[in-house]
Amino acid sequence: MTMSTRQRAYPHHILAIDDKADLLASLKSLLEIHGFRVSTANSTEQAIDSLKKSNFDLVLLDILMPQLSGHEVLRFVQEKRADIPVIVISGDYSFSSVSTVLKRGACDFIRKPYVAEELINAIDNALDKRRLEFEFKTMQQRIQQSEKMHRFMVNNSPDIIYILNERGHITFINDSVEKLLNLPKDELVGSHFSALTGDDESRNHPFTFNERRASGRKTQNREMHLRKRLCINGDGSTTSLSVPFEINAMGIYEVEKLTGKRQFRGTYGIARDITDRKQAENFMRFQAYHDLLTGLPNRSLFRDRLSLAISHAKRAGTRAAVMFLDLDRFKIINDTLGHNIGDLLIQAVSRRISECLREGDTLSRFGGDEFTLLLPNLKAQNDAAIIARKITSELKQVFFIEQHEIVISGSIGIAMYPEHGEQIDALIQNADIAMYHTKSHGKNGHQFFSEQMNQAFADKLSIERDLRGCLEQHQLFLEYQPIINVSTGNVYALEAYLRWKHPQRGLVLPKEFLKIAEETGQLIDIGAWVVNRVCEDLQQWQNPILKIAINFNPLQVEHPDFENMLMCAMQKYNVSPNQIEIEITEQLLIRDQTSIAAKLRRLTRLGFSIAVDNFGTGFSSLSCLHQLPINTIKLDQSFIRHIGDDTKSGDACIVNAIAAMANGLNLNLVAEGVETLAQKNYLTHLGCYTMQGYLFQHPVSSEEARNITIAPLLLAQ
Fold first, then answer.
1. Which residues is 173 bridged to in the sheet?
2. Rounded distance, CA 434 to CA 415, Å?
3. How far apart, in whole angstroms, are the C-alpha atoms of residue 204 and residue 220?
């Protein structure tokens, strides 16, 4: 066989060993002709040295060597390089010699002189055998590695993997069972699967864990509880915990060779621990029906329980009460102390209310500082009233929240089933209406719903609805009342009054709709309209020395766009800020004084004057008046109304004190609501010469107000 007929992937490296140089050269030439790469050695020592240094695919060895024989090479190969095949080429072909070399590891024996073709065939056979042995060994290693990897994957799976025989006994189970169920796998193998599930669960799910079906009807994602061992008691018994698992199982079948029928051999299954998933589902379910801040039922769960209470009350002929509770002054606490304190207060309130309830009652957080309560199985309204009084009494006790002593109260509205409604929404709404009625009548108490409240609530909703379109439909207008300097008879200023010409209700005064506008967020837009309308009138009247006073709610003054809104109106109508007096309430003075003071100072620097309206009815202090840029205080008409000939009345004393204070602080004093000559004369005697009221002029339209500014009023004497 020549190179032309031999195709090798790579040239095999052969070590040829012989002490005769001519034979060694001839052998090397023959092998190279047949495509082999050849190294040579002419002694045993040189051969062993070459084997140590290089890798060879085959060794050709002459046993008869001087000094050390070729048997030393065989011994070295057998001990150190057993994977290299050795073919012995020798002239000693006696039986004992051949037997010895074969026993010492030689794969073949060729006698000298050799036939070239016989030698090449022996070499090819030895190399093929070596290749097959290498491939077999590699395959064995891969199989072992695969089995090792399979065992690793099975035993390190997060799931329990098991195999049952046809009788339901465990024939295999992976290591995960020890971690998940605290059960030794050695104890389980050979046991019935009920050792994992328990008898009750096996009866409830008789064909889940030991599924026999193998088609599309096999068990998939079926929930089942397995027993987790917690501890072994002193008497040898065990304490266990039921743990949820998801089971996927299928039958194992084998086809018989003789009959061709499928025979059931057992069950293969996977059990996955779903404890974390169940906990997450339970938490999500809790979130869906509970308030996360307090842990109380939310409005959805409250409605469900109210529905059940109504059904029970119908059957039993009893009553149920729905309470709507809103905390008083909570917004002030939240704004001043921060939302964290507000949240802690809400939690404390929920705990304190819960302590006032009976077993079976439901306290729910409706949102913000609003709570709803369900009191089932009541005999009379007084039962609900007793609990309401207990709650309001408990809420008035001091709350200690992170070094803060907080005092609050609660306003409660109560709707009774069936007197005040037989449906869920009606009862909740009517309790809400009653709560607002409590708030509007002094707060800190409770009221039962009545139809009169419902009518008032309906009127409020109607005003709220109609208020949304009053600006677009041009239903708002202004009236002006002059403020008179009685010593000169001249108009000191005009005060603007907002009016609403309702298409059905007629004239609506501010006290009937401004509070609603504040609650619905429309007050800012209405205030901006008033400022622009005043500036427009000033532009038309062309009276640069006339001043107009405008009342502003604290929310308007505190709004971040308040200053910009004023200046935009001034610029639009070319009006000087000196012509506008900003009337604020004492309520504003007790808020964030630093921020309010800075804002008022900026406005006075621009030219606006500042007046405190209804002075004496709020909580302002002398320090507020002294530190803030106040120009005018307006004496509330409630102090003037009863002043007559009795100059020693309580109202007269208050008026005297306020007049003295204004004089001492160098503030302008304006008396509101002056209606009689006696009041006018008394105020004049105190040195108060600036007044307004029906004695001088009722509020009039814009057109009439323009005439007043031109012609002096004829003052009553």
1. 162
2. 8
3. 17
CA angle 207, 210, 213 (to 5 degrees): 75
CB 486 within 8 A of CB 685: no
CA dihedral (506, 509, 514, 520) in degrees, to 10, reads: -10
Question: What mean pLDDT, rounded, does the chain reach?
Answer: 86
Which one, of 540, 473, 533, lies nearest residue 498 by Cα? Answer: 533
- Asked if residues 202 and 187 have their Cβ atoms less than 8 Å apart, the reply is no
632-635 and 580-585: which strand pairing? unpaired
Look-up: residue for tokens 């098991």?
A: 162
Write down how long the chain is: 717
Alpha helices in 607-649 (DSSP H): 622-627, 637-640
Q: What is the pLDDT of residues 156-206, one digit of tens each?
A: 788 999 999 999 999 999 999 998 999 888 889 999 998 888 777 878 888
Strand partners, 413: 324, 447
Residues 86/63, Cβ–Cβ less than 8 Å: no
Could you identify the residue written with the tokens 């003295």? 660
Would you call 632 helix, strand, or coil by DSSP? strand
Question: Which residues, 6+ apart, have CB-to-CB distance to 585 below 8 Å?
Answer: 553, 554, 612, 613, 614, 618
Give buried/exposed letters for 83-94 (b at 16+ CB in 10 A, else e): ebbbbbbbeeee
User: Which residue segments constitute the domains of the chain, with CATH numbers given?
Assistant: 13-136 (3.40.50.2300), 160-280 (3.30.450.20), 295-449 (3.30.70.270), 466-703 (3.20.20.450)
303 neighbors 315 (Cβ within 8 angstroms): no
What pLDDT is attached to residue 3?
Answer: 40
What is the phi-psi region of residue 168: left when phi exceeds 0, alpha when psi lies from -120 to 50, beta otherwise?
Answer: left
Is the pTM here over 0.70, yes or no?
Answer: no
Copy the structure tokens of residue 395: 């809420």
CA of 328: how far to CAs of 331, 333, 677, 698, in Å?
8, 10, 43, 37
Contact 43, 19 (CB under 8 A): yes
> What is the average pLDDT across 533-542?
93
Question: Over 268-327, what HEC string results?
Answer: EEEEEECHHHHHHHHHHHHHHHECCCCCCECHHHHHHHHHHHHHHHHHHCCEEEEEEEEE
Could you report the per-residue pLDDT of 29-49, keeping only the tens digit for each? 999 888 899 999 888 888 888
End-to-end CA gap in the chain: 150
